[in-house]
Amino acid sequence: MTPSALGIAHLVPVDTILDEFSALVKEHGGNAGNPKVRSAVLARLKELYQSARQEIEQMLFDDGRGRRCAERLSMVQDQIIILIYEFASRHVYPTSSRSKAERLAVIAVGGYGRGTLAPQSDVDLLFLWPYKQTPWGDQMVEYMLYMLWDMGLKVGHATRSLNDCIRQAKADMTIRTALLEARHIWGDKPLYDDLLRKFDKDIVAQTGKEFIEAKLAERDERHERQGSSRYLVEPNVKESKGGLRDLNTLFWIGKYFYRVNSSAELVKVGVFSRAQLNRFRKNQDFLWAVRCHLHFLTGRADDRLSFNVQREIAERLGYKDHPGMRDVERFMKHYFLVAKDVGDLTRIFAAALEEQHVKTAPVISRFLNAMVPGRKPRKTSIKGTRDFLIENGRLIHASTDIFKKDPVNLIRVFYLIDRNNLDMHPELLKLIRRSLKLINASLRENDQANRLFLKVLTSRSDPEIVLRSMNEAGVLGRFLPEFGKVVAMMQFNMYHHYTVDEHLIHSIGVLSQIERGEGSNDHPLATNLIKTVPNRTVLYVAMLLHDIAKGRPEDHSTAGARIARKLCPRLGLNPAETDTVAWLIQHHLEMSVVAQSRDLNDPQTIKDFCNVVQSLERLKLLLILTVADIRAVGPGVFNGWKGQLLRTLYYEAETIMSGGHGQLSHRQRLDYAKQELLEALPDWPEDEKAAYLDRHYPAYWLRVDLDRKIRHANLIRTTDKEAEHLATSVEPHAFEGITEITVLAPDHPRLLSVIAQACYAAGANIVDAQIDTTKDGLALDTIFVRRELPEDADELRRGQRISSIIKSALRGTEPIPEPSNKQRNALQKNKAFDIKTSVNVSNSWSEHFTVVEAIGLDRPGLLFNLTRALSELNLNIASAHVVTFGEKAVDVFYVTDLTGQKISNVGRQDAIKARITEAFDGAAEPVPKPVRPRRRRAPMAS
């Protein structure tokens, strides 16, 4: 295209610039090799290039045409290459007559060969000569490359003869793909034409099947590397499923198999309809706009839509806030709808290939599986229906009017897929999409349709796959309009890895896995409990609907419960089942929040939780739903530590609700705990045992488990024999995914603050902390840090390194190390989010402690700031509970004043809120001084 065709008004014509260069050479006596000439030429090229890029970026803002932006950038790059080539051939290395070997073609390959270029992409070039390298050609290539490099461009290049290209393309699929899109820029055009003819004859015409198989295998590997879902909330615009590379793959296969040169020709050969081609181009234009904005914004070739750029990209593209949805969430929803559309085009393309008899039926999760030319489809009937048939293991319609005759077939089709373990034929998918308007109020209220849907949802096979297929086809969002509102909806936070609809569908898959007993080692309690649930339907319905009200101005749990009360009767649930589903949705976050952010050793915590749950049946259902919900958030979000907290809360609540609480008196429980430890220390002298029992306050005996009591006893006994009362112990816990670090030191109000700062410096994330004080002035602080290394021996060494930093910090002998780059990067990433800090101070959440709950934007060093603030407020910390939900931190502290009493004065509570808010919003600072021993009164016994 010409500059005028692409709308670049201020780009100076090539001939005009070349005249400038010729005049410049004359000014220096015709010596083009003069360094001053080269510097002046280079400066002029840089000026032209930068001014054109600035104009193109502004044009992108003005017209929003992403594909056109990439074409403009490609055309400008062409102009630069032509200018360098002509200047070099006319003035630097002129020849009066060239031999047959002194021919050179400059060819764009790869994405640049398609005539598109992202702002920060590599410029991929092929320098082609006929049969051997000549000194003139070598000098030309070297001069061009150094000029491009000195302009600051990233150039990927190859220098080959014609025969080299063909030989290497036969052996290397990457080179073959690059040559498939070869485009002549400048130089010897007949030589370029010879390459195309030879490439088409010797390679393309004979290797269509091989090429398609390789490209599809490459695509599958790329998807696996990027994350198999197209609904990951930080997608790669180029490489992720549903991105530009998928569209490129379609075109590569089409060009190779159908021998076409443009996307428009795919209509002529029957691959796409005109409407489908327009969708292809529209999606491509949007993805290119996102990618170009991303490169312009960041100034680097990074194609990942990370959280810290999504908001700015949304603003660049002109998205605005709507009630319940921010601008960035509306932008990302559009992105995921486009990614979904790319998937639809992929399936349509697969159907066209199948009509050419180039493949067999795939399994449900693959695009193409194997290529078997000439195989004829074989159709068989299905028992109980005449509207559908099975063709090569896939479901297909018997006639094109089956949905008009009976709209219930739009639901029945997925029931049959599930019952018979079939894939859907691409032609059936196309018919379904054309029939979506038949899903109306009448069908939604149809009893048979709702029964079939419920059977799909509660299937004992793999409901996740069928529900995802139903969603991809557009049926699920039409049949359940409330679900349709969250399709492709992104939640702008670092906690959820998927869009809302994908999370809901995936949670059904996790629930089904739990029911089948898969992964029972990761969540044994949920696996056992689900076998005892009398009504599994309410669990599956609640799981599908638990986040269905996301994106609304009101609380999604409350709104979701209201939706459930309306929807459940339609699905055939009775009033009692409806009430249970609504309750589960209303309280689906309750167990997770309590388990992770409350002191489970505090009786008031358990009492309050039991008052909410009220029945053992609900407790079971809530535990199972909570486990599945957390596991479906994303890889690695659920771990053994969270599982242990949930189990502890479950068993404590079960004890109360089953009437077991109070069978032993407080004194009996205390005596039992002490006797249990005595029996576990058979080698200790009796007088030493008696003395040790008197060192701990009652709260310690009732809340610490036996294994930990034994480790504490041995640690204290060993330390008593040493001059310094400072020691640590490390215990990795593989199943829970945490490492326990115990610190024994002279008590001091700022002790936990120093430990937190040392952990921050060591790159350790604290997830929980328990603080105990002995009667003789020692603090026994146990912190739990998130595990990082898979092997216990390696994690033990890591824990010992953290312990060493803690001890140095407490002694004040060495400065605390600077935070790592990883921590600084985490801080930078969190800046993309805006969470208003809130602080609650409650005396009702605990019988003996004031509970301080701080919620806000997480950052490295936060716990240090908060614990230091509490110590400056003269508060004793009895326990600390740290939980993060992506970028949001919830830090909860159980505190007393220095006399061991609750904070009852309202004025002082307000002062605590103000100081903790200030600490939450501040920045991490180094520890000012080493800690000096100081006794503090112990907290009251619980």
Automatic annotation (TrEMBL):
InterPro entries: ACT-like_dom_sf, ACT_dom, HD/PDEase_dom, HD_domain, NT_sf, PII_UdlTrfase/GS_AdlTrfase, UTase/UR. Uridylyltransferase (UTase) activity is inhibited by glutamine, while glutamine activates uridylyl-removing (UR) activity. It comes from the Bacteria. Coiled coil: none annotated. Residues 1-381 are annotated as: Uridylyltransferase. Modifies, by uridylylation and deuridylylation, the PII regulatory proteins (GlnB and homologs), in response to the nitrogen status of the cell that GlnD senses through the glutamine level. Under low glutamine levels, catalyzes the conversion of the PII proteins and UTP to PII-UMP and PPi, while under higher glutamine levels, GlnD hydrolyzes PII-UMP to PII and UMP (deuridylylation). Thus, controls uridylylation state and activity of the PII proteins, and plays an important role in the regulation of nitrogen metabolism. This is Bifunctional uridylyltransferase/uridylyl-removing enzyme. The lineage of its organism: Bacteria, Pseudomonadati, Pseudomonadota, Alphaproteobacteria, Hyphomicrobiales.
